[in-house]
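lol ok so funny story. i was supposed to be doing the assay writeup but got distracted and ended up predicting the structure for this chain instead. priorities right. anyway since i did it might as well share w the group, maybe its usefull for someone
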Amino acid sequence: MSTEILIIDDNIDIRNIINDLIIEAGYKTRLAANYNQALIEIDKKLPDVAIIDVKLDKGDNDGLELLSHIKNKDQNIPVIIITGHANIEMAIKALKSGAFEFIEKPFNQERLLNFINRAVENINLKNKNKEFESKLFYSYDLIGVSDNIKNIKDQISKISISESRIFINGPTGSGKELIARKIHKESKRQKGPFVILNGALLDIKKYELELFGEENVNGSISYGALEKSSEGILLIDEVSEIPLETQSKILRVLIDQKFKRINGTHDISVNVRIICSSSKDIKKEIQIGNFREDLYHRLNVFEINIEPLKNRVSDIPFLVEYFSKKISSNYNLKKLNIDTNNDYLLNYEWPGNIRELRNLIERIAILSPDNSDKVSSIIKESLKSPDIKISSVENSLSIPLKEARENFEKEYLTTQLKKFNGNISRTADFIGMERSALHRKLKGLGVKELD
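and the output, tada:
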């Protein structure tokens, strides 16, 4: 599909010069002669690149208002600002507002074409990365042998074919979005869109605009997430961050199955399956008055809980193996040589969960160490917690040998149990003990066996 560039300038001669230049370079164009025409063109269809004159017919800096309008819709679209009234302050203001480049009139055509070509390369690269990341995310699997992961896989297979709303609980980086994408992929709506609305990233004033869209005074329409996800699935990520006033409006949508756009007069019917997720304890948020209980019960028809990675130590070796293959393939490298039973990996708390583990494997791939010792060094350097280790050593030095040995055995056996998902027989085989002896040892140390 050919790249389309929107030219916004109130001077017909300038418009025609830029238009001829762009068409000759092999790109498609759309033209707008004033502020209102520009709004209509932008809202009708976002361009791949925009070229905007700062001073149009509405005011001194109405071109900068159009720049902000485009950036509110899509931050990635490159916008080249042109002006015949240039000064340093205006240039800085344009660039701070997100302009890709700033050029003065009369402009050098070759220089402008160079800006345009770089802007096209920029947006094409971002689109390719977005497409690659989307495919990569869809290609990821839920990996693990823990009871938690087994249960989630079973839940996905059962609830994907239904139309029930789903609430996914889990810490940041644990895989909530991946679960939602898997449900979409296996559902009847798999051919429909999958739209994400991240409650934690939105400006508090823009929740309703992003959700419901807006009917502008010039007749153009800005579509919200509810309409963009029609016939598909809408994931409201970090739903607990949505203001109470907006929560009441979402509740009304769920009850009535319709809504009005901002400034709209007509009802829009809703045909979307909603999945919500939260990294906060949503029941606690209800107790302290931050989230509506009636909305929670509407959204939580089916609940999925994913545990933090530190509670799923048995999954870590499988995740390391999986990401090693996946990431080395993405970087066209030979398979990464990572010890899946590395103690640093198994004993680390993983505050960033699976996302942190994946980032570590990617870091190893980028650094491309040529032997296992260098891999281990990267892991140690990345996961070290010097204060904790020093404190642990100091504590060990201040207690009798018997107590220190017991503390070590307790920590060692707890880690091994987690690694084998609480399986006593496999743990006993690995550490070289009889099963009955291990039972006695655990009881003697006060270590609770995993369920």
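The radius of gyration is 28 Å. The longest helix spans residues 109-139.
back to the writeup now i swear
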